[in-house]
Amino acid sequence: MVATLSISDPRRIQLNAEVSKEYPRKLVLKLYAYYYRSELEREGKTVECFGGFHVLTSSGYISLSPSTSSEKVRIRAYIYGVWNPSSKPRYITIVSDPLSRKDLSEIDETLGVEDINIYWSIEGYGFVEGVPDLARIHVWAGEPHRISRKDFVTNVLEKVDMLRRAFLEVIVEPIDLRTVRDSRIKTGLTLLLEKQKLLLEAMRKLPEASTSTDFRGVIDEVRRVVEGIKRNQDLCELCKEAYMKLGLVEATDSKIVEEAAEEIIASIIGSPKDPDRKLCGLLETTFYYASRIAIHATTLSGEPYTPCPNRAEAEFAVQQALVELNYLIRLLKRYNERL
To answer: In Å, what is the CA distance from 106 to each residue of 42, 159, 274?
Structure first.
């Protein structure tokens, strides 16, 4: 009976992309795993085994999937045919078959904006220290492990220079409203945090969206969220105060400071004091974009059309609104900390 070395349940992993320095260039994914469980089954007995081993041949896969979706990307992979020295924990590198940048772009498109579940299983044959005959070697995940979207972008996408993908990090500010003393700031933060929560829920729907109808639904949620904030008089006044108290505007006269702060905030939120919309706010613009690409069926001149958004349009709407809300939340948080 062939002895089997089974290595599973790592406590720590990291997924990286690497591009060879030699030509022709070769792009691979490398999964680094630190294992504390390693067992040798031999002659009907199973014992802990952290001795060295040498892989002669191996094959298997790395599987990636969005954290809230059953859709999976399966990539062929193997273990280097080198001597793996005796150690605890075991440090093992699993390498994908070469990928093209187009492959990686398609993988990224499938994974979307979610955190990523990763699973792998590699089987092969080689020699295990203390075992005289050829042994079966199985290196696997045990159970799926999760890596953050941010880590995937930093360690994989950004490592591939030709991909040139910019990553937008969604910053969810930790705020305990019980520590907010000013009732107006608390009211403003409560409104913004509720809207932020709705936007995050819309973002979580993106991985499952696949049709124009699905994407219109996501964009419409953005529209409804932004509609409740744009040109909000109380929020405008509060944020204007924040700009003035935080010293974000300087001038020789306090009236000029107030006027400038009001105009800056109007350029973000919009202002009911600006009926001619000389300072059309970012949130207003996001609202108009979402309305035009998801709801309206006629142009301003009355001509009919059918909006057919794809994933990119939905991502743009969600991310744009999140950036704007996150900034306002951070602004009021700084204002509260200054009081």
So the answer is: 43, 16, 45
